[in-house]
């Protein structure tokens, strides 16, 4: 990559990351009255845009920077848990959409965004089951940064939460590896080992790994979550499929639609 092109990407990335923080600050409102702590915001739009414009890896880097900056400024009340959840959720969309549109942006942008939105919605299920109880939402109080850090440390060190966290991590890694490997082998064999086959296998493998890993984590949390967070898990379960999942789906698809309109009208004219 030429130095000039790399510089352009970094500049665009910095602008898009800054826009994420600005949009999150000025545009945010609750969708479900029963869950006022779940607010829609347009902060993900610049990050989705970056995945198509700059590619999956630059998009993921910009997402990481934006999540950290947002997490210590406009969304500081969410603490470190909010930063982790934001990066994993938005990063799943960015990586998925960026990989699919890597070669043919305009032709693949619609299926890429649909796949990204579905992936983000599904991966938020285990994330909500794992991290949301740590916020203590049963009291409708969002923790401060310090309290969030203390909660994470407690969950990762004390028994049985430490064992529970390790098991969840191992389960997700194993599920992702199995799904990724199956897709890679199947696709490459179908293409006689050509480069195109490997690329397609990597994309399918990443998506399948995220979806299958999310499914495994969801089952684990439904079965074992009460051990780590008995009271909070009961609260989250009552709202998971009636409020939390619909909210995440609405937010992901709405931001994907806005990003699609912006890219078709403006983004494809930008030269990198």
Write the SSE topology.
Blueprint (H helix, E strand, L loop, with lengths): L2 H24 L1 E3 L8 E3 L2 H10 L2 H17 L6 H22 L4 H27 L13 H13 L3 H30 L4 H34 L1 H36 L7
Antiparallel strand pairs: 1-2
Helix pairs in contact: 1-2, 1-3, 2-3, 2-4, 2-9, 3-4, 4-5, 4-8, 5-8, 5-9, 6-7, 7-8, 8-9
CATH architect. name: Orthogonal Bundle
Question: What is the number of helices?
Answer: 9
Q: How would the global form be characterised?
A: globular
Sheet with most strands: 2 strands, antiparallel
Proportion of residues in extended strands = under 5%
Chain-averaged pLDDT: 75
Strand order of the largest sheet: 1-2
Secondary-structure content class: mainly alpha
- List how many beta strands DSSP finds: 2
Query: What's the SSE pattern?
Result: HEEHHHHHHHH
What value does the Rg take, in angstroms? 19 Å
For the record, give the distance between the C-alpha atoms at the N and C termini, rounded to a whole number: 11 Å
Helix content: over 70%
As for the number of domains, it is: 1
CATH uppermost class: Mainly Alpha
In terms of quaternary structure, the protein is single chain
CATH topology: Arp2/3 complex 21 kDa subunit ARPC3
Low-confidence stretches: 137-160, 189-193
